[in-house]
Amino acid sequence: MKMPSIEDCGPVLIGTGLAVVLAAQLWPGIPIAAAIALIGCGATYVSHKAATAGLADSLRHQRWRLCGSLLVYGALVGLAVGAELDLRFNTIFVADALLALLLLLSAVQSVFHRTDSSSTW
After folding, report:
1. How many other C-beta atoms are found inside a 10 Å radius of the C-beta of residue 50?
2. Which of 14, 39, 108, 111 has most Cβ atoms within 10 angstroms of its Cβ?
3. Can you give the pTM of this predicted structure?
4. Is the pLDDT of residue 56 over 80?
5. Which residue would you say has higher pLDDT here, 51 or 28?
């Protein structure tokens, strides 16, 4: 049986991130920066998969859409990290901030690595 690629897990990442954000509404101590980054990664992977399936206009437009999406999610993660670390500066929130940063960097790497590098912006 073939293992699914990370791009096939986009909806699962979005659902997992949303579940954590919703759980944080019931239990306010749950850090959510990594959950927002999970949603951003999932949205990036879903958008990239849709674009490679021929649903996007062109590669240039695909890159700009993905970069815009990552910019928005990067800003949301930055706000979440700032709010969390202003609230409490402990190991759990610092680890959540680092995990969020790593998730966003993996999404950025996916955008630039998996799109055709021979085309111009």
Report:
1. 14
2. 39
3. 0.82
4. no
5. 28
What residue ranges do the domains of the chain occupy?
Answer: 62-113
The tens digit of pLDDT for each residue in 60-105 reads 677 778 888 889 999 999 999 999 888 888 899 999 999 999 999 9
Cβ atoms of 57 and 78 within 8 Å: the answer is no
H/E/C letters for each residue in the chain? Answer: CCCCCHHHHHHHHHHHHHHHHHHHHHCCCCCCHHHHHHHHHHHHHHHHHHHHHHHCCCHHHHHHHHHHHHHHHHHHHHHHHHHHHHHCCCHHHHHHHHHHHHHHHHHHHHHHHHCCCCCCC
Interior CA angle at 63 toward 62 and 68, to 5°? 100
Task: Name the residue with tokens 């700009």.
Answer: 64
3: left (phi over 0), alpha (psi -120 to 50) or beta: beta
User: Phi and psi (nearest 5°) for 36?
Assistant: -65, -40
Measured CA to CA, the distance from residue 18 to residue 35 in angstroms comes to: 7
